[in-house]
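Why run this: before we spend reagent on co-expression, it is cheaper to look at a predicted model of the complex and decide which construct boundaries make sense. The entries below are exactly what would go into the expression plan.
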Amino acid sequence: MCMRQIKHPSMDQIELTDIMYALADPTRLEIVTLLAAAGRKMTCGEIDLNRPKSSMSHHFKILRSAGLVETAIEGTEHMNSLRLEEIEQKYPGVLQAVLKATAGSSTSQE
Amino acid sequence: MCMRQIKHPSMDQIELTDIMYALADPTRLEIVTLLAAAGRKMTCGEIDLNRPKSSMSHHFKILRSAGLVETAIEGTEHMNSLRLEEIEQKYPGVLQAVLKATAGSSTSQE
DNA sequence: ATTATTGTTCGAATATAATCGAACAATGGA
DNA sequence: TCCATTGTTCGATTATATTCGAACAATAAT
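The model came back. Tokens follow.
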């Protein structure tokens, strides 16, 4: 029960261009879409998209630094969740509109 | 009156990730913001942000290929306008939310 | 203690993007 | 026709991103 936490940007540190940048990558957009669809915390493993762990970790890192994803360590697992409410508060409509846009056209390739 | 036109993507060719990518660059986001604020066609010259012509041209090219900006040649000038209605139709709320987000915090540096 | 699990970090290769001067193309006007 | 204007294209440089194997760190279980 060490609760070693990963550092996340605070709301006032979240930049719109960082969000845009993070969402510009198809893999990352899919991660966000899956998290939103699930509506719950998910481990990195659950979101596996046939890519090496190190690649996924890289994308999660960018999603985290953009402020889109929050990661809580629970045991050996990293529980990821969308920071939807916070981003809505700071940039109303942006993330929701993006999620609505991806909801129709399936980005997944399986 | 040659009306030599530049090629633009049709609505069904406009990809969300391309839009995100285009808007992830501060210079391009500012161009889009200025065009939206102006609410009219503007020449590249009018939007000059203390950068060389070739750099601006590069950014306009990306905005065009993403489907965000439409450029009509009128004489020696290139008139640029936002494809707001079309993008709203395809991805409702996305661009408007981004514009609302940039409306507050001035991205300009002069 | 040893081992398995989960994910991060490192490092190096490859790929993509930004920047900007210089040359170019198209138009309009003197 | 010649020149000015507007913006694009070219080409080379520099900077930034992506990718992924291998080594590592933290925890949990045996």
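Chain B touches chain A at residues 16-17, 20-21, 23-26, 29, 91-94, 96-98, 100-102, 105 (CB under 8 Å). The first strand of chain B starts at residue 42 and ends at 43. Bring this page to Monday's planning discussion.
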